[in-house]
Every structure is written in C-alpha cells, then in structure tokens.
C-alpha cells in the first residue's frame, strides 16, 4: 500500500517552473531517496510534502489522508510528518531527553517518559539523556534528531541531507544505525542527498529527478542495469555516450566494432532498431596497444586498489581500469575491446 502518493504536482518560484507534473508513490515502510542534479527541485519536493509551500497543482496524500489537492491544503503541523532537515538543528538549550520529548507535549507525562526512554534505548544514548547538544558528537546529534523526529510516531519521515555534516569515517556506520532505527519503527521515509554512495547504503529505492519530475523510480540495481533515460544513466555511473546502430536487439554497430548485449534490449517491450546511442561504462572495456586503435592515451593514475588509464575517444575522455603493467606513452594509439554486457541503448527520437 502507498504511504505517500503524489500525483501531477506543479510548483514555480517567481514564475519559473520547478516541479512539473511530478508523481511519486512510496510504499509502507519503504525508504526512498530523491537524487538529482543540484537545483532540480529535491528540497522543493520535500517542502511540498511537508506543507511548507503550497503547490499550484496536484494531489498529495499521506497514509491515505489527502493533504493537498484542488482547494485543499493541510498545514504542516497537521500532516503527522517527522522532519530531519539540515537547518532543523536540535534545540541548544534543551537536553537530549527534552529535545526528544519536544513533540510529545500533548501526551501524558507517563506516556512521554516511556516514549523518551524507548527512543533513547533505540538510539543507544541512554547514558547521554542529561547532556546538551554541544556536548555530543555530530553523529550523536543526528541520532537524537532522528529520535526527536520519530518520537511522536509520524506516518512519514522527511530527511534532507541528514548526513552531510558527518565525518566520512563514521558516516556509513551512522547510515546503518539510522536505517535500522527507521526500519525498527516501521515508518516510510523520503531522503534527499547529493551522494550516490549514501543513497545506495540508506534507501530501498531511488527516485531520480530530472526536469522537475521523477525520471525513474526503482532499486539502485534495477536503475543501474536499465536506466530509463540518458540522464539517469549518466547520473548513476561514469561513462560516455557513443553513436550506435541497432542491427538486432543484441547487436549494435559502433566505431568500436559490433557490441553485443547479453540480454535483448527492448523499448517499451518492443525490440529496438535503427539509430541511437549506447552508454559505454568503463568496467566493460579493455585496452591494448594498436596503431589503428580508436583511443589515444592521456594519463594513468593509481586509485588505491587499481589503476585507471585516461583515454581520449574523439572529443570525449574516459577512465578505463587497467593494470600496473599497462604503461603507455602520451598520445599512443590504443584499441578498445568492449566485452559483451547488458547494453544501455537509447534510440534517437526527434527530441534527442
Ligand atoms: N525561495 C526561493 N526563491 C526562489 N527560487 C528558489 C527558492 N528556493 C529554491 N529556488 C530555486 O528552485 C530550484 C530548486 O531548488 P531546490 O532547493 O528544490 O533544489 P535541490 O534539487 O534541492 O538543489 P540542491 O541539490 O542544490 O540542494 C533552484 O533553481 C533554486 O534556485
């Protein structure tokens, strides 16, 4: 069942459309990550869900309750949403337990105390109940912030860049902890980040935003395997687009020779044909010396566990995995062999 349902949402800032016919469904107990280029409208979407701005068009319902629609607007405090925004810091003058209890003022003191105790145990900060935020690390503060957001049992949790101020070394432990806490509380969540690694580690599904709408929603693996648009492909992994002609649904003629797809490439269930482009990912490529090769060596670098060769292909450059023994001279011609893989092919239309 959908916990959050957004249909055909529109919103403009000063006449400039930001959300354009945006639709998104989030199921019960699901964590969905909104990803997309800077300025594409991720925070605007969260604000519209929270009721912090009024969309000009579209419907939103949370836990099957309509909160936005034609002549309907439910204010934020009545939406039963927990928020953890970057700029919604903890109250500095309140202790950890007072911060967690903040949203529970309507409850009796026994319910409030019980819930605060439960949340402190969930975030494993029982011993820190009396401390003030400035006496906690960044990660501990975020755990208190999530406890505060979850304390009054919201139907939906909205998180805007919750890990961006956390040191890289502890960030992924914190992501694991907060994911466990959210799953434990069986609440749905929408999460905004700039980091694909965070999204992969934290979310059940990714929703990639492009041009004011959701270009694709699915698991990271599904989107990576079959990106619906060129934008989704380029956003999720490094690569280059090369012209290709579909000879069949598994054979594509390119300047690198014929590239074979391990599975038939389909377009809305129909087999593809005609001209288009392939999104070429470096992990499927092998370099070798060849005076007639299509590539030209630029540089190589060591990245911890492997080497990468930067190679010029026409006007584009690509970093291709190589071994420490593959040493080339600047400008040397290289052949590029493309191993069979699940090809990401995009047919050319009048629009691209
Ligand atoms: N209060 C505002 N007034 C006018 N324009 C705004 C306002 N807030 C945001 N915008 C514009 O709306 C667009 C979307 O902003 P939004 O903050 O939703 O993007 P975002 O995807 O969250 O970006 P980022 O990844 O950089 O945080 C941007 O072009 C931004 O400049």
Number of strands: 23
Average pLDDT confidence is 90
Biggest pleated-sheet summary: 6 strands, mixed
Structural class comes to: alpha+beta
Proportion of residues in β-strands: 35-45%
Shape: globular
Please give the count of helices.
Answer: 8
Domain ABC transporter: 4-236
Organism: Pseudoalteromonas spongiae
Keywords: ATP-binding, Cell membrane, Ion transport, Iron, Iron transport, Membrane, Nucleotide-binding, Transport
Protein name: ABC transporter ATP-binding protein
Short description:
The protein has 352 residues and is of the alpha+beta class. It has helices spanning 42-50, 96-101, 109-122, 138-150, 168-184, 196-202, 220-225, 230-236, and strands spanning 2-13, 16-27, 31-35, 57-62, 65-69, 72-73, 81-85, 156-160, 188-192, 205-210, 213-218, 240-246, 251-254, 257-260, 266-267, 270-271, 274-280, 285-289, 295-302, 307-313, 316-322, 333-338, 345-347. A hairpin with a 2-residue loop joins strand 5 (65-69) and strand 6 (72-73).
Descriptive account of the structure:
With 352 residues, the protein is of the alpha+beta class. The protein has eight helices and 23 strands. The protein has helices at 42-50, 96-101, 109-122, 138-150, 168-184, 196-202, 220-225, 230-236; strands spanning 2-13, 16-27, 31-35, 57-62, 65-69, 72-73, 81-85, 156-160, 188-192, 205-210, 213-218, 240-246, 251-254, 257-260, 266-267, 270-271, 274-280, 285-289, 295-302, 307-313, 316-322, 333-338, 345-347. The strands form five sheets. Strands 7-8-9-3-10-11 form a six-stranded mixed sheet, with helices on both faces. The chain has a five-stranded antiparallel sheet with strand order 2-1-4-5-6, with helices on one face. Strands 14-13-12-17-23 form a five-stranded antiparallel sheet. β5 (65-69) and β6 (72-73) form a beta hairpin. α3 crosses α4 and α4 packs parallel to α5 (168-184). It is globular and about 80 Å long. The model has no long low-confidence stretch (mean pLDDT 90). The structure holds adenosine-5'-triphosphate. Adenosine-5'-triphosphate binds next to α1.
């Amino acid at each position: 069942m959908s916990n959050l349902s957004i249909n055909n949402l529109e919103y403009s800032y000063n006449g400039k459309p930001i959300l354009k016919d945006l639709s998104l469904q989030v199921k019960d107990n699901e964590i969905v990550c909104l990803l997309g280029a800077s300025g594409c409208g991720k925070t605007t979407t969260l604000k519209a869900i929270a009721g912090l701005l009024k969309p000009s068009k579209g419907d939103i319902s949370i836990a099957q309750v309509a909160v936005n629609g034609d002549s309907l607007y439910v204010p934020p405090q009545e939406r039963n949403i927990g928020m953890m925004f970057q700029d919604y810091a903890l109250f500095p003058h309140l202790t950890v337990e007072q911060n967690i209890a903040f949203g529970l003022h309507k409850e009796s003191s026994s319910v409030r105390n019980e819930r605060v105790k439960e949340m402190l145990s969930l975030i494993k900060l029982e011993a820190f109940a009396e401390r003030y935020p400035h006496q906690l690390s960044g990660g501990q503060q975020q755990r208190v912030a999530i406890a505060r957001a979850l304390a009054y049992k919201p139907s939906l949790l909205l998180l805007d860049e919750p890990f961006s101020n956390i040191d890289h070394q502890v960030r992924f432990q914190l992501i694991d902890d907060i994911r466990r806490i959210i799953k434990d509380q069986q609440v749905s969540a929408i999460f905004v980040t700039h980091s694909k690694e965070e999204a992969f580690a934290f979310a059940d599904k990714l929703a990639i935003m492009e041009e004011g709408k959701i270009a694709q929603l699915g698991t990271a693996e599904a989107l990576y395997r079959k990106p619906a648009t060129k934008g989704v492909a380029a956003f999720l992994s490094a690569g280059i687009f090369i012209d290709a002609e579909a000879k069949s649904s598994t054979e594509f003629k390119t300047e690198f020779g014929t590239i074979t797809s391990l599975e038939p490439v389909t377009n809305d269930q129909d087999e593809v044909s005609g001209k288009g482009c392939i999104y070429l990912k470096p992990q499927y490529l092998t370099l070798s010396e060849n005076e007639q090769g299509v590539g030209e060596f630029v540089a190589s670098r060591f990245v911890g566990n492997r080497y990468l060769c930067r190679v010029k292909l026409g006007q584009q450059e690509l970093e291709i995995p190589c071994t420490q023994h593959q040493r080339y001279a600047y400008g040397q011609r290289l052949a590029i062999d493309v191993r069979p893989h699940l090809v990401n092919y995009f047919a050319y239309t009048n629009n691209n």
